[in-house]
Every structure is written in C-alpha cells, then in structure tokens.
Design a protein that fits this description.
This protein has about 220 residues and is mainly beta. The chain has a single domain (about 1-20, about 30-140, about 160-215), classed as Porin. The protein has one helix spanning about 1-20; strands at about 30-45, 50-60, 65-80, 85-95, 105-125, 135-150, 155-170, 170-180, 185-190, 200-215. Strand 8 and strand 9 (about 185-190) form a beta hairpin. The longest helix has 17 residues, at about 1-20.
C-alpha cells in the first residue's frame, strides 16, 4: 500500500511544478475543473480494525463557496488476521465553504455527500487442513457528513484533508469473533433491514488536486 501511494505521488509531482504558474481568474473560481488522487483510512466501530485504501477524484467548482467532488475509492481492512473486508465506493460530495477563503492558503469546508458501495468480507486460511473459505457481500447506498480543509499550495495546486462519518443505507455486513477450543473463529453476519448504527464508519482522507482548466 505504501509503494502504491508513493507511485501515485510521483506521477502527480510534475503537476506541482507546473502549478506555480499564476491563475488569470483568481476572483471567479466558478467552473474550475480539478483532477486528483487520494488515500483513505477507514475505521469500523464494530470491528475495531483500520482499513486503508486509495482512489481518484475530480472536482467542478460552482462558485466561491460551493465545490463538488466526484470520486471512486477502494479500501481494504484486515480483521484480526481472520478475514479481509474490501470496500468499493463511487459517489459525489458537495463542499460548502462557510468563509470566503478562495484566495487564502487555508480554506475550511463542510462536506456532505452520497455514494454507492460494494462490500465483501472473506475469511483467511490460517493453516487449517480442512479450511473452507467463507464470504459474504452486499450492495448498498451510503451518505456521509464531515469537515475538511484545502491547503492551497499555489493557484493551481492544493492538498485537501477531511474527516467524515459514513452510514450505509442497506443490509448490515458484520463479523463476530469468538474462541472455540482456544482458537479464534470469525463468523460473517449479513443482516437485512438497514441496520444503520452497526454499519457506520469514520473516513479520513488526504488528497492532492490540480486545477487543469475552466469549464466556463
């Protein structure tokens, strides 16, 4: 995962060099198109484990105080060495800037959004001779709300940090770990009915973004 993140950063680094060019439209950000890459840390309260992933995004600015973000993520989480959880997100967010800080170095924002999600949990063979793989998956929608900030390195280049809480609006997909004959075992539970409380998790995202051109 670290190697992947380094490769992504190296690929985008040349954009940073070009980003030193001054923008000719500083007072009207509306219509700006940005392209970026991101890495995300996910924490599920139900497992106590932490997942890490990566993805990409583009942004279309609607005004000084409104930006939109369209993204795709892949996140993988190891659950106590017994199972892996994989998450695929594709969605959009609205970034609301309560302060007129477009030309400032720091631009805090409130972020709210929606995504479609595919999750899969599969067991890991820990050395058992009669091992039989077990897996469950589900498709759902999710909504998220949080806070973030842009660190505007130049007129064209920024680093964004955000923290959000995401709640899935479909079937709950959980794990239960218990001991059996001094060995830990994992059970995968899929519950219908949209159990929102159990399937919520916190997302921390860092992204680097480059303003490419103006759409209008």
């Amino acid at each position: 995962m670290i190697k992947t993140n380094l490769i992504l950063i190296v690929c985008v680094f040349p954009l940073f060099l070009f980003s030193q060019k001054k923008s000719n439209n500083l007072d009207n950000p509306s219509g700006k198109f940005e392209l970026g890459i991101r890495t995300t840390i996910s924490s599920f309260s139900s497992t106590g484990s932490v997942g890490q992933g990566y993805g990409g995004q583009f942004r279309i600015r609607l005004g000084k105080r409104i930006n939109t973000e369209w993204y795709a993520d892949y996140i993988k989480e190891n659950i106590s060495g017994l199972a892996n959880r994989e998450e695929y997100h594709i969605g959009w967010s609205v970034m609301i800037y309560p302060f007129n800080t477009f030309n400032s170095k720091i631009s805090p924002y409130v972020i709210v959004g929606h995504c479609f999600d595919k999750a899969k949990i599969g067991t890991i063979n820990t050395g058992a001779i009669d091992y039989t793989p077990i897996s469950e998956s589900r498709l759902s929608a999710a909504t998220q709300l949080g806070l973030g900030t842009n660190i505007n390195v130049s007129d064209h280049f920024d680093i964004s940090l955000s923290g959000q809480y995401m709640v899935h609006l479909g079937d709950a997909l959980e794990t239960d770990i218990h001991k059996d004959n001094d060995y830990n075992e994992v059970h995968i539970l899929k519950e219908s009915g949209g159990n929102l409380a159990l399937d919520g998790h916190v997302l921390f995202t860092i992204s680097i973004n480059y303003k490419i051109f103006d759409l209008w």
